[in-house]
Design goal:
Length: 406
């Protein structure tokens, strides 16, 4: 029975994170409807002459082209470490992350850019005289800033014809503490102002949005490696249990939650002048992140892009042409009604009960009778609870409708 309980715990860990809402276009964090604007979608960093262009984008799948939004409760920040040593002789680290950070636990921000927006996606006038707050930069009057609604630059069909709220900065390289510096470590965050709680984190693209990193979004990068190592042992135990009792589920577990040997790296973006800027060295708007990360082991974006693409081969360019000059992003798509959330209702949920039961029966064919029975009973109980909740919601809505009509 102890092993059975461990199996059920493993299954719950397998299924639960995949059901959460997300950001970074698909981050495994749970955002309420009132906090969608705190969800970070992308971080870009690329050069334009003597300027470093940095973009922090939020609010995925946006179908509006103007406010009001719910931006005022949050603070957005871009951080840069310009003191930590970065090396480039490890071929794997260079290919996956852009380089090697010799002391990841020593990462600390030397440059901080804090931004607050009003609900129309403009710089908040009641914060720092309507300007971002800069720490660690000089000649800040030469920094260009633009915020607002733009076309979503993520090259991924699911988010085509969608917009984002962007914060775009053009920073002279001469504004940094070391005017001859070559290496930067960059990341961004969103924080809830009323309690100071960090909600989301972004570093290297297609990193924290992987299901196996659901715990990174609230941590400082200096703590990432230790957290990954701590989680690795529990993930190994889950995989061993699944391998022994439910081998078919291992194929689903590994790509989603198994921590790889190369994962022990902080979720940050490395930007260096030592070789050309192209993901994972910074990130250009045209970089095909889906393909570039797949070449290093994470292929979910490529598969999702193929599934969502009406064309063949899959789309490898943005659905709008980027501008060649600041602010670089294309104009937003016209407002359109947001897609209706799926609503199968009670009848649909009942109809899926048999199919769901059959699926798990097939998935657990090779289990011993005791474990298979326990799993099936648990699944059925969960489904019945969900059906009850659906029925209660439907009944509540009908009651509200009847009250309004009277």
């Amino acid at each position: 029975m102890k092993k059975t309980n461990l199996l059920l715990l493993s299954l719950s860990l397998l299924v639960l994170p995949a059901a959460l809402n997300g950001s970074d276009h698909a981050d495994p964090i749970n955002l309420s409807m009132s906090e969608l604007e705190a969800g970070i979608t992308d971080l870009f960093a690329f050069p334009d002459g003597d300027q470093m262009i940095v973009m922090l984008n939020v609010r995925r799948a946006l179908t509006a082209d103007k406010g009001p939004f719910n931006l005022e409760p949050f603070e957005y920040a871009i951080y840069m470490d310009v003191h930590s040593e970065v090396t480039f002789d490890n071929a794997r680290d260079k290919a996956v992350y852009g380089g090697t950070i010799t002391k990841p636990d020593g990462i600390k921000e030397d440059v901080t850019i804090k931004i607050r927006l009003d609900n129309d996606a403009k710089l908040a006038k009641n914060f720092n005289n309507g300007r971002p707050k800069y720490d660690g930069l000089s000649n800040i009057d030469k920094i260009r800033v633009e915020t607002g609604v733009f076309d979503d630059p993520f090259i991924f069909p699911r988010f085509f014809k969608r917009n984002v709220i962007a914060m775009i900065l053009s920073i002279p390289f001469s504004s940094f503490p070391d005017k001859n510096g070559k290496d930067w470590i960059i990341w961004g965050t969103s924080t809830r102002l009323k309690d100071g709680v960090q909600i989301d984190h972004v570093g290297r693209s297609n990193r924290s949005q992987q299901g196996r990193f659901d715990f990174l979004n609230t941590l400082h990068p200096s703590k990432h490696v230790a957290a990954i190592k701590a989680h690795n042992q529990s993930r190994v135990d889950i995989e061993k249990t699944l391998m022994q009792y439910v081998p078919p589920l291992v194929n689903a577990y590994q790509p989603l939650f198994k921590i790889r040997p190369y994962d022990e790296f902080p979720d940050v973006m490395i930007y260096t002048k030592r070789y050309p800027i192209k993901f994972p060295n910074g990130r250009n708007l045209e970089d095909d992140v889906a393909l570039l990360t797949c070449e290093q082991g994470d292929c979910a974006l490529v598969e999702g892009a193929v599934i969502d693409s009406p064309q063949w081969p899959r789309a490898t360019k943005n659905d709008k042409t980027f501008k060649k000059e600041f602010p670089y992003l294309a104009d937003p798509w016209p407002a359109s009604p947001p897609p209706a959330p799926p609503n199968v209702g009670l009848r649909g949920a009942l109809a899926s009960l048999g199919t769901t039961t059959l699926f798990f029966k097939e998935a657990t064919t090779n289990c011993c009778t005791q474990v298979r029975t326990a799993v099936m009973v648990t699944i059925i109980v969960v489904i019945l609870i969900l059906l009850l909740l659906v029925w209660l919601i439907i009944a509540w809505r009908r009651c509200r409708r009847a009250v309004r009509q009277t």
